[in-house]
Amino acid sequence: TAHEPTASVRDTAEAIATMEIRGAATIAGAAAEALAAQARGIDPDSPEAFCASLRAAARTLHETRPTAVSLPNALRYVLQRMDGRDVETLRRNVVDAVEEFVDQLDRAQTDLGRVGANRLADGDTVMTHCHSTDALACIEAAVEQGKSISAVVKETRPRNQGHITAEQLRDAGVPVTLIVDSAARRYLDTVDHVVVGADSIAADGGVINKVGTSGLAVNARERGVPIMTAAQTIKLHPETLTGHTVEIEMRSESEVIDEDAREAIGDISVENPAFDVTPPRYMDAIVTEHGQFPPESIVTLMRELFGEGAAEPWAE
Ligand code: RUB
Predict the structure, then answer these.
(1) Quick count: other Cβ atoms within 10 Å of Cβ 226?
(2) Do 76 and 313 form a contact (C-beta atoms < 8 A)?
(3) Is the CB of 23 under 6 A from ligand 1?
(4) pLDDT tens per residue across span 33-58
(5) Residues labelled catalytic
(6) Which of 61, 83, 91, 306 has the most other CB atoms within 10 Å of its CB?
(7) In the predicted model, what is the mean pLDDT of residues 205-212?
């Protein structure tokens, strides 16, 4: 029917679900672009049909992965600007909103990078977990400020996103040491700052990021190493203002053990949570494009930017 998502929306949704497109900010940008492609690619016979088709596309994109709130925040940003009495006006407003959203995404990352960079000193060694474009923006900005920075990069099992981080830092001229996740506490003795990203930030300042972040934060505190989360404000989770919790994605056991290992081990259960929650007391700062915040005060910014409500403009 006319309301079905176009192939490009289905392709983007598939790429997000299989993690070909991954990382909270990248997912948000790709989802917004997919809405623009849907707006350009359909020829509905009424404004109502146009809107229904965009809502259906947003639902398809929304169902891909549950934890990064940047995804629903992106869909909400675009659909709230879907305004007009005729199809052409609606189409233009959606395409313009997507362009604006993607611009803001880039600008926010550049701006928060400068803030995060100010927390790093010349000669610092940073430790990273997973692959976060917001976290990398801080390290890259520090390098651009002329600071000499080295990195200890956790490989981040089971998907090894640390390899992407290692490659990107090497390209930025940062000397990189790759370690297995279990070696993190040992190497914290040699590290000046831990820098991680976020998929969602809860109203109480809890940081939801790649599984392993909370253990790293507790160990960093115990070793006296400061830890920051680099998170542009589309990572703020508006529904947590009204008492909702953030869903932690559970992924397939095949990411943890292959079929041969499964067969050899036999009847055991395997669990593969993709994210965890770092309590605010273990995080020193949340670095955003509006400056840095103690996690406990992030709720003020969340209210200012998202109000009390978290409408779902994609609902049927
Ligand atoms: C990625 C991850 C990243 C955040 C932030 O998890 O946990 O730290 O998404 O990334 P996955 P960014 O690989 O499962 O998507 O700063 O790029 O938004």
Answers:
(1) 16
(2) yes
(3) yes
(4) 999 999 999 999 999 999 999 999 99
(5) 130, 199
(6) 61
(7) 98
